[in-house]
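tl;dr need the bound structure. longer version: we got a ligand (adenosine-5'-diphosphate) that a collaborator sent over and nobodys looked at where it sits. i said id run it. heres the input, straight from their email, havent touched it
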Amino acid sequence: MIDVSNLTKVYGPVRAVDDLSFRVKPGIVTGFLGPNGAGKSTTMRMILGLDAPTVGTATINGRRYRELPRPLATVGALLDAKSVHPNRSAANHLRWLAQSNGIPTSRVGEVLELVGLSDVAGKKAGGFSLGMGQRLGLAGALLGDPEVLILDEPVNGLDPEGIRWVRGLLRALAAEGRTVLVSSHLLSEMAQTADNLIVIGRGRLVAETSVAEFIREHSAVTTRVRTPDVDKLGAALTAAGIAFTKSGDGLEIPDRPTEEIGALAFNAGVMLTELSGAKASLEDAYMRTTQDSVQYTGQKEIR
Ligand code: ADP
C-alpha cells in the first residue's frame, strides 16, 4: 500500500506537485498517468525519499521510505535505467546491489532469468540497448522480492515484444498480491496494463478511478448535423440550454447523443439533411482532461 497525502513540491516558480493525495492498493496494477511534465517522476521520487516534499507525506506500508528497515525488501523501484555503472556487467551490478542491501547473491541469477538477461549476464551494462537497460533496471527492482513496485515509464525504449512482456510481468506481480504503481504519459499503454488509474495534470489530481470507469466517463459522443435551417435549430438548442458550435450549414453538439438531437430537431420542426455521431477517441478525452496541464499542445484538431 502506498499513501500519498497532500504532497507538494515547489521548485522556484514551478509547483511540480500540487497538493496531491491518493492511495495505491495491493493486488492490482495502478497506472500513474499524465502528460510529460505533469509531476509523475517528482511524485515517485518523493515516495522513494529521493526528494523532500515541500508539504505533505508519502508512506509505503505505513512508513516513510527512510523509516523502512530493509528498503529493497519492501519496495523495488525503476526510475532511471541509465543509473548503472557502464563498465559493470549486469550480474556484477546486481551482486553489488544485493550485497549492499543484505540480499543473498543467489537471488541475482533468479532475477536475471526472470527478466530474460541470463545470456548477457557477463556483458558490460554500458553496451546494453535501452530495452536491455530497462530489463536490468527491472531486475534490480525485483532483487529484494519487494511487496511494492514503483516503476517510472518502464516500457520506454522497448519493442512491442518487450512491451507485452513488461505488461504480463506487472500483471503477474500484482496477481501475487503486490502493490504495483507504474507511470506512463500514454493512455493507450495504461489502458492495456492497469486496473486503476491515477491521472494527474500540472501536479494536480485529475482522476482516481478504474480504467473501465475512466473510459466510460470520457468516451463522450459529439453529434454533428447539417440542416438548411441552421439558425432555427441553433435557437432550439439554445432554448434547451445545449451548447453547440456552428460550421457552415452544420452544427456540432458535444457530449450529446444523436437520439437526443434528432428528437429535438423533430420537435422544433427543423429538417435535417445529416445526423451523425462521433465518439471522441480516448486519447482525445485524456488530452482534454489534462489540457490545463500542457504548456504546449500543438495544433488542436476540432473533430
Ligand atoms: P513527469 O515525470 O510527469 O514528466 P516531472 O516530475 O519530471 O514530470 O516534472 C514536473 C515539473 O517539475 C516539470 O515542470 C519539471 O520541469 C519540474 N522539475 C522536475 N524536477 C525539477 C528540478 N530538479 N528542478 C526544477 N524543476 C524540476
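gonna send this back to them w/ a short note. Residues 11, 14, 16, 34, 36-42 surround adenosine-5'-diphosphate (CB under 6 Å).
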